[in-house]
Amino acid sequence: MALHFKQAAVVGVGLIGGSLGMVLKQRGLADSVVGVGRRVENLRMAVELGAIDRYVSDAKEGIRGADLVVLATPVDTYERHLKDWAACLEPGAIVSDVGSVKGALVGQAEGLIPERAYFVGAHPIAGREKTGVGAGSAALFHGARCILTPTQKTNRQALQTIRELWEAAGSTVLSMDPFLHDQVLGAVSHLPHVAAFSLMNALIEIRERKVPGLDLLAYAGGGLRDTTRIAASSPEMWRDIFLWNRENLITMITVYEGHLATLKQLIQAGDGPGIERELERAKQVREQLS
Questions:
Q1: SS3 for 18?
Q2: Backbone Cα Rg of the chain
Q3: What domain range is 264 assigned to?
Q4: 3-state class of 217 per DSSP?
Q5: Predicted TM-score (pTM) of this structure
Q6: 78-130 tens-digit pLDDT
Q7: Rounded to an integer, what distance in angstroms lies between the CA atom of residue 50 and that of residue 71?
């Protein structure tokens, strides 16, 4: 049976939700795509850009009649959303998400959805530092990985449907335990964001304390731009990710601090060979990253 939805509801029509809406519409995967959100100007833009067919501010109105619901809001809002409209879900409806944290959130969502509907956790690894539907594109997910996080409670057919949805979007789809997902993404995604945000704040302090009156960033080259690009990401979204994955992230920050301390000590001691060994090890691993 071909993948098709009668009505898809996208709760949170930003970069990811809007891009998925474009996929649903351009690929003819849904008869209707309804956007649910707070900002009317953003929802109007979503209609103009072809991300949704119509929009509603009352989530219950968008959920009724939907056989697919995608949560694309900050992860800390999931509980509030599901408590608000889960009772309106149609029999057989699939609720999925696009959040960067899974772990306990998956169990929470499963517990809030009535037995007549299904939850499938999903994380498309395809974000940009720009936010909003205006930065969206149906091509955003081409070649990207999408991690599904099923549990023992996950309905197999619902899981297959969400797998086919992300494959239709052009993603390479993998499955992973929700808690393992948070360990892996904590290392390769959440920790780099910590580093980028912290580096920018360090530069702000250096500018204010060491070179007041000088536009320090005017002298920045590609290295700073490459290293801190992701510091332009949504503070609201990353606040929630950091808090929901705090235990994994604190462990990883501690490891990172250890390597900063090692390099600091080597520089302080004037240990050229030691510095080179540290840099060479990092360089060799970085060269394996495509």
A1: helix
A2: 21
A3: 180-286
A4: helix
A5: 0.92
A6: 999 999 999 999 999 999 999 999 999 999 999 999 999 999 999 999 877 77
A7: 19
